[in-house]
Amino acid sequence: MAATITFEIPEHIHxxxxxxxxxxxxxxxxxxxxxxxxxxxxxxxxxPPEFQPNLAVLAHVVDGALRQIARxxxxxxxxxxx
Length: 82
What we know:
By secondary structure, the protein is mostly helical. It has 5 helices and no strands.
């Protein structure tokens, strides 16, 4: 099933998408769908059920907060080096 969405994008992005469609000789709709696929968060519903609640929470955490968690001293002590 497909959904129709109407929204405004900045002109410079529109031009970039139009240029890409022209250069690749593909429909603008196809270019926009590809951009959305590449930029979308990964689907977590295929993960094992025991991990899904934690992945759902992580989907709502701001990138900066994730970086801070990943760089914390507590996590560094748990990282294995090869």
